[in-house]
Amino acid sequence: MARMKLVLVGNGMAGMRTLEELLKAAPDHYDITVFGDEPHPNYNRIMLSPVLAGEQTVEQIVLNSRDWYAENGITLHTGKRIVKIDRKNRRVEADDGSSAAYDRLLLATGSKSFILPVPGADLPGVIGFRDIADVDAMIAASSHYKHAVVIGGGLLGLEAANGLKLRGMDVSVVHIGDWLLERQLDEPAARLLQKNLEEKGLKFLLKKQTAELVSSPTPASGGGVGERALLSSERPSLLELAAKSPSPPAPPPLAGVGSTPRVRAIRFKDGEEIPADLVVMAVGIRPNTALAESAGLQCNRGLLVNDTMQTFDPRIYSVGECANHRGIAYGLVAPLFEQAKVCANHLAEHGVARYQGSMTSTKLKVTGIDLFSAGNYMGGDGHEEIVFQDVGRGSYKKLVLKDNKLAGAVLYGDTLDGAWYFELMRDATDVSDFRDKLLFGRHHIGDSGAGGGMGDEMSRVMLLPDSAEICGCNGVCKGDIIKAVREKKLFTLDEVRAHTKASGSCGSCTGLVETILAATAGGDYSTAPSKKPLCGCTEHNHDEIRAAIMQNNLKTMPETMQSLGWKTPDGCTKCRPALNYYLLCAWPTEYVDDAQSRYINERAHGNIQKDGSFSVVPRMWGGLTTPKELRAIADVADKFNVPEVKVTGGQRIDLFGIKKEDLPAVWQDLSDAGFVSGHAYGKALRTVKTCVGSQWCRFGTQDSTGLGVKLEQMTWGSWTPHKYKMAVSGCPRNCAEATIKDFGIVCVDSGYELHVGGNGGIKVRVTDLLCKVETEEQVMQYCAAFTQLYREEAHYLERTAPWVERVGLSHIKAKMVEDEANRNLLAERFFISQKPAQVDPWKERTAGALKREFIPIRVVS
Amino acid sequence: MTTWIEVAHLDDIPRQGARVIKTAAGDIAIFRTLEDEIFALRDKCPHKGGPLSQGIVHGKKVACPLHDWKINLDTGLAVAPDVGCAARYPVQVIDGAVSLSLTPETTLSE
Ligand code: SRM
Ligand SMILES: Cc1cc2nc3c(=O)[nH]c(=O)nc-3n(C[C@H](O)[C@H](O)[C@H](O)COP(=O)(O)OP(=O)(O)OC[C@H]3O[C@@H](n4cnc5c(N)ncnc54)[C@H](O)[C@@H]3O)c2cc1C
Ligand code: SF4
Ligand code: FES
User: Fold this and answer.
1) Is the pLDDT score of A223 beyond 50?
2) Is residue B106 part of a domain?
3) Among all residues of chain A, which has the CA nearest to that of B30?
4) How far apart are CA A628 and CA B96, in angstroms?
5) Which of A76, A406, A604, A642 is deepest in the core (most CB within 10 A)?
6) Residue B41's Cα: distance from chain center in Å?
7) Is the pLDDT of residue A662 over 90?
8) What is the best residue among B42, B66, B85 to mutate for testing ligand 4's pocket, by most ligand atoms within 8 Å of CB?
9) B19: three-class secondary structure by DSSP
């Protein structure tokens, strides 16, 4: 069958991203042709600012080289502008007369700089800031002229001004508003920014309205080599002014030649005039829709598209800045990349993805200045504000809350927590539980992991040498990450993880990696999509899958995958273990565990070691043991030549280096001595750590050891979303470290304090106090209920600490402290699930279950 | 001439799983996919030698248990961006009997 023809108009970031996604999803579906009116292959437009600032070169920002197009069989036409779409005959025509037929057409024409319609706007030396030609023009001007004026104090304007200043020009920024960046910042933050930029030598003229651009009476000489000049005779319409020049290379230097005078000054409404040899208009962008409009496609501040990125003509799709989705034309790449993904999915005829809009956040790319803003940062009716200001340190923070959810944020100076605030906004997290600490950032709510502690401001990270180790787990240095981002054109955190392994293990360096990524690839690529699917095999997220399992009575993994439209025949290493757990949790008495969907540790009931051997940790209830047990362990260690015996951090003994085929025999001996598996390998109940307690300790208030043993006997064998640890301390001296456990108990004279959501691992988090109870029976009941709530609600591989932070302590209290009936129901469901779970997996296997798992099936010589 | 050694019955190997054959030249892992295809690779991950037989089998790939590299069962090649290759051994299944040749394949199939 002949392949269908796909034509892309607009060789820019959104369109090309769509093609890359399409090639991944359906490499052979189309014959692809690309038209772009710029003379270049696709490049990273975001990085024009650093190029202007001299921090990067044009070569470094190319995203798809001409070879790339050739390798992927794509026909590329650069420097050709499509001027007509013939929808009836399904053809597009370019300005040089060439044409191409399509079965599907993708319009990704982006937008153009808006040029103020003032007298003189068509003079040579007046440009926008949009493409390489503009940057070339600015660089050329900087070596011949002195005075630059940037009109527009938004992100683009400031980045242009900063670049021109670094190129040696005398730069003034003219802004009509009361303060800079009024679309991103409130006034106090903008004043700080202005002060810092003034220290860098920029001048600002606020509340100034441009009346006219004035030309030089006499032609200046020798200026503007290679600069793009816009001649009124060539471009009569003002709207057309900012459009791209039709054919490369740029016209020969016209500035100041002959009768065409160059811009010389700018005059304001109040009569004031300042010199200007270069005027950069950065007052806004307009979607490039003239082409679509001429073809009769509905446009209204952008080409209208639906949730599948389709225009009113079902054969024509549109993505990027030219598209208007639900009333919004986005001007940042993160949402455009989401659109690209959805569009590619439909072009590939997979037909499952939907684009539902994005929330955006912005950063200013001026080296040495840290600025972040997102959402509704101005507040208003029904909104509350939390503000912190320290002018001396140049630091300002404002958070806007609505109904105890974060609605917006502005950070200046210290943007460490930008990504976190953004996450809270996206997930609509209820912040009432930590509202008092919200402003001070993530690590003040118990989270002092390496990522937070080291700080991730752009400048500090970028000052590190290339040899600085960023990811301690995988030994990845800063230089490795930068190299991979540049060479492999990586944009997202996931891609950096895949290519370098950085932040792929414990994740504590994620913030650092994101910063390096942002600094190297530009912009805000780290922003997570509005909805995060469980994995690449599905469009659904954890909560949707769990809900579907219950509502649709899905009882097996194939059934679940089929019903929810899985894209792969048998899932992947991310979804299979998760589904296995969700089904087990939903149907504890019916579901047959799928060993092949378990990670090896849980399949073989031991921890795999780097040499492929295993470790064995038997349970020692509450950390108690006896001489007889110790002797049995010693005998096993002797008999099997165990290379190392170690006391663990969880109050029990670990036997290391056991060969897989010896496991059943080792377990047999341990089992005979009365031991059961310690589940030191599982997403399961691990240890219950205890202290001496009232039995012996002179401070003990309750029998913490005894209570720990009871709790462990009640909960052992339970599978949980992630590992689950408990501890009981006999008094507030807390020798069992109960306040960094998933469920911790601190005994006091009058009863028991119950603490939840602690973590002593990668990011230390101290527990929250859930409530206080009076009897051991209550402790057991609350423990069962809390464990079950976690089992039923958390995402797979989410420990209690992030879960509690995500859903909020009040939610947990409402479900199981305040609601007694529900607490009892939860506990009841926990006890039902425990009946089939409390079968010692070791004993089962020494009795012959799954014997073949452990021995080679054949030995051949 | 390929010398086939019968090593197992199809049912000895779990679907989406693997079993190990011990040989003088080292362990060989025999994989069975959801679709009942059978593959044999040297039981050593090209990364740091992890036992591939212990990994999760999905599609025509296995995920190494140590650091989660994905290895293509049909080619032995690591899935990009990782780079490396585990030796492949010829296998055949006749009437449910799985036979293996101990001479690794030399060409890289695509
Ligand atoms: C054996 C032990 C270290 C020791 O010699 O003491 C240990 C060993 C491992 N820990 Fe641990 N952890 C051990 C106590 C701890 C503790 C201390 C404790 O429990 O009081 C912690 C911090 C407390 C906590 O979890 O909040 C701890 C936090 C971790 C983490 C980080 C978890 C987190 O949420 O941040 C991991 C990684 C993971 O789970 O993904 C981890 C993972 C591991 C793994 C399983 C790594 C792996 O996947 O191979 C190690 C297995 C080693 C092996 O080859 O057997 N281990 N690990 C301890 C076993 C306790 C036990 O008796 O079961
Ligand atoms: C200086 C600068 C800095 C920026 N910084 C950031 C940032 O930090 N973070 C961020 O998220 N975003 C930033 N942006 C915005 C970001 O670059 C854009 O949102 C993104 O490039 C838009 O992608 P697009 O594909 O829709 O449009 P474009 O990348 O503009 O691509 C459209 C292409 O189509 C071509 N074209 C138009 N009409 C036709 C036609 N009829 N025929 C043929 N070709 C045509 C255009 O010439 C252009 O090459 C910045 C933009 C600029 C200019
Ligand atoms: S035992 Fe824990 S801390 Fe030690 S190396 Fe292994 S995972 Fe890291
Ligand atoms: S040894 Fe296989 S992934 Fe590291």
Assistant:
1) no
2) no
3) A857
4) 49
5) A406
6) 3
7) yes
8) B66
9) strand
Q: Report the residue of B58, B61, B71, B110 to disrupt the A interface, i.e. the one with the largest count of A CBs within 10 Å.
A: B58
A356-366 per-position pLDDT tens digit: 888 777 777 77
Q: Token pair 């995402």 is at which residue?
A: A795
Using CA atoms, how far apart are residues A8 and A18, in angstroms rounded to an integer? 10
pLDDT of the residue at A418: 81
Question: CB of B70 closer than 6 A to ligand 4?
Answer: no
* B39 found inside a domain: yes
Question: In the prediction, which pLDDT does A734 show?
Answer: 95
CA atoms of A27 and A13, how far apart (whole Å): 19
pLDDT of the residue at A464: 76
Query: ω before A558 within 30° of 0 (cis)?
Result: no
Closest CA to A136 of A232, A218, A251: A251
Cα of A618 from ligand 1 centre, angstroms: 15
Q: How confident is the model at residue A459 (pLDDT cuts 50, 70, 90)?
A: low
What's the DSSP call for residue A779? H
Candidates B20, B35, B101: best to mutate against A (most CBs of A within 10 A) is B20
Q: What is the mean pLDDT of residues A454-461?
A: 54
Which of the ligands is closest to the CA of residue A525?
2
- pTM, two decimals, is 0.68
Q: What whole-number distance in Å separates Cα of residue A827 and Cα of residue A785?
A: 4
Per-chain mean pLDDT for chain A: 88
A-chain residues near B3 (CB < 8 A)? none
Is A74:A34 a contact under the CB 8 Å cutoff? yes
Which one of the ligands is nearest to A760 CA?
Answer: 1
- CB of A648 sitting under 6 A from ligand 1: yes
CATH number for the domain spanning B65: value is 2.102.10.10
Nearest CA to ligand 4 atom 4: B67
Pair of tokens at residue A113:
């700089």
Instruction: Say which amino acid occupies A641.
Output: N
For the beta carbon of residue A206, count every other beta carbon within 10 angstroms: 15
Q: How many angstroms separate the CA atoms of A173 and A266, rounded?
A: 12
The answer to whether residue B24 sits within a structural domain is yes
Q: Per CB distance under 8 Å, which residues of B are interface residues toward A?
A: 5, 7-8, 12-17, 19-24, 27, 30, 33-35, 48-51, 54-59, 63, 65-68, 70, 81, 102
Chain A to chain B Cβ contacts (< 8 Å): 86
Residue B94: inside a domain, yes or no? yes
* Residue A684, C-beta contacts closer than 8 angstroms, at least 6 positions apart: A602, A717, A718, A719, A720, A723, A724
Q: Which ligand is nearest to the CA of B63?
A: 4
Q: Separation of A429 CA from ligand 3 center, angstroms?
A: 32
Distance A57 CA to ligand 2 centre (A): 18
What is the C-alpha R_g of chain B?
A: 13
Range of the domain at B86: 5-100
Closest Cα to atom 38, ligand 2: which residue? A109
Residue A562 at interface with chain B, using a CB cutoff of 8 Å: no
**Contact A851/A595 with Cβ under 8 angstroms?**
no
The better pLDDT of the pair A457, A755 is held by A755
Residue A269 neighbours by CB distance under 10 Å: 11
* Phi, psi (rounded to 5 degrees) for A187: -60, -45
Residues B54 and B64: their CA atoms lie apart, in Å, by: 7
Amino acid A252: pLDDT? 40
The answer to whether A760 and A742 have CB atoms below 8 angstroms apart is no
DSSP A38: S
pLDDT, residue A446, reads 46
Q: Is A487 on the interface with B (CB under 8 A)?
A: no
CB B88 within 8 A of CB A598: no
Please state whether the peptide bond connecting residue A249 to the residue before it is cis, i.e. omega within 30 degrees of 0.
Answer: yes
Paired residues of A280 in beta bridges: A127, A150
- What's the structural domain count of chain B? 1
Decide: A347 and A30 in contact? Cβ < 8 Å: yes
What length does chain A have?
A: 861
Chain B residue numbers with beta carbons less than 8 Å from the beta carbon of A499 are 81
